[in-house]
Amino acid sequence: MRHTSVLIGVLILCCGLGAACTQGRGGDALWQGVFVAEKSFGPQFRGPLTFHRMGDGWSASIQGERAEVKRTPSGDGAHWAFAIEDQGRFEGHQSPNGGAIDGHWIQAPGEVEIYPFATPVRLEPASDAAFVGEVRPFPQEVSLNISLTPDGDPRGVGAAKYQAFLRNPQRNLGVFFRIDAATVKGEEIRFVRSDGEELAVGRSVEPGQHFSLVFPRFGETFDFRRRPRHDAPGFYPRRSTEAQVKLGRPVETGDGWKTATPGAADLDEGLLRSWIQSLATFEPTGLRQPYIHGVLLARGGQLVLEEYFHGHHRDMTHDSRSAGKSLASVLLGIAIRRGDLPDLDQPVYSFFGGVEAFENPDPRKRRLTVRHLITMTSGLDCDDDDWETPGNEDRMQSQSEQTDWYRYALDLPMVREPGEAGVYCTAGIHLAGGVIRAATGKSLPRFFHEELAEPLGMGHYQMNLSASDRGYMGGGIRLRPRDFLKLGQLFLDGGVWQGRRIVSEDWARESAAGQATLYEDQDYGFAWWRRTDEIDRRTIDTFYASGNGGQLLFVIPELDTVAMIQAGNYSDGRTRNEFRDRFLRDFILPSALVKR
Description:
Layout: H1 2-15, E1 33-40, E2 47-54, E3 57-62, E4 65-74, E5 77-84, E6 88-94, E7 101-107, E8 117-127, E9 130-135, E10 141-150, E11 160-167, H2 174-177, E12 181-185, E13 188-192, E14 198-206, E15 210-215, E16 220-227, E17 258-259, H3 269-280, E18 292-299, E19 302-308, E20 318-319, H4 326-338, H5 370-374, H6 393-398, H7 405-410, H8 426-440, H9 444-453, E21 463-464, E22 478-479, H10 481-492, E23 496-497, E24 500-501, H11 505-512, E25 516-519, E26 522-524, E27 529-535, E28 538-547, E29 551-556, E30 561-567, H12 573-593
Parallel strand pairs: 17-19
Antiparallel strand pairs: 1-10, 1-16, 2-3, 2-9, 3-4, 4-5, 5-6, 6-7, 7-8, 8-9, 8-21, 10-11, 11-12, 12-13, 13-14, 14-15, 15-16, 18-19, 18-30, 20-22, 23-24, 25-26, 26-27, 27-28, 28-29, 29-30
């Protein structure tokens, strides 16, 4: 009965967060179904990259294009760089001993993601006169999935009405456009909000099967075609509702994870199976419902659960949003362990030329330290929950007067003494990335790659950059799911991954401790959140990374467990918070406590 009641609870959760689980109230069913439009916006530049020796210099070739490569010797090796106009550029480093060139392809902004991304590229020597590698940029792709359910003929003049909502796994655009209904009359399909505002007008191409419309977000025509469940992964979690989930042992891929079955790790396998089954067979009936893309669970240092939905898989990178802020904590800890940064009590402005070099001079700015940035107690006029503050992340990113976001943050006025209060401020975390860059003398993509990605065996990733092409520490790096889970295991194991120390044990402990209170019931460490749950008359402490849309990485030291969800409920905090709490309290903690 326990598993049955849990399954019913999940179904209530899935159907209770938005539109009711109804199938309409009759009417013309010609257009009933799910209609999908998919489009790629590039980038076109991808594939094999070759460096050729040309006399005394070097030339790069990719997709038939050639560019001069600049090779600049330095104290720690050589820097290699070239650019293709309007497409992107490469920046790489080679050690003094020669060998491979490790670097990043920095692609131009796109239609889906408007800021650049840096993706890793390794060029191996093919001969004395050539290096070869591959450019794999972030694909700018969009999937739009519109559900239409008959809702009668409201005017009695042949205009069929449908309930409608839009699912979009990349950005959750349905939250912004709020399509609630569609009316069909002749070849014309009108999409409107509940208040009657018209959003777009489409044209029937093949009645009941195919329509086209210019989608407002992109200003381009999208062709929507009816898709069955097995061919609409952007809408349905799995191809079939009939397949029974079997929780086997995740495959070992050589990425550093040892694996085991949930049962071998003393987890309640039946509870986990019923939950995953309910996620796999879920029938979406409204916009504000869980949009789970992946679930992973590790216990005792072994990966024991790995399930994906909506077409996602273990080699697909996923947007971390603000959960990526925890990388700033890791990188700061690495810089301190290496001696690049003495400690967290270094004055922030000392890394950028002094307070006098920036606007709004204030004696309190001299007392602003790196510790204040990473604990969100800076005192700067910056509050992501308040658009009126100039440091609000959306305001910073939407303005075009100052593309250097380090300077933008440093120019902000002070409104309180540093350390006085915790206020959620993404610009401050990003500025901590500027401190890392200044202290180490390396770009953030390079420092991240050399000091974290390579030691942890992270594969392909995409680091999002700021408007001035610098690594953005405010969140949004795209990592493969198993690689993101490694961050949790690293801190659970006191700063060690697979026997290799990455950050000090003291740093791992202090990062997870309460350093500030940002909200009434939520403490914050070094870019990690904290929470306490009561279950089975036990108090369980957890620290976790959290990002917009449902990017959640939980570390539960008492249960030797790391758990993660990746989801697409962007800009829908209510839904995210509800399944966050259900995930932890109803499934992960009970399954881990069953034999304890």
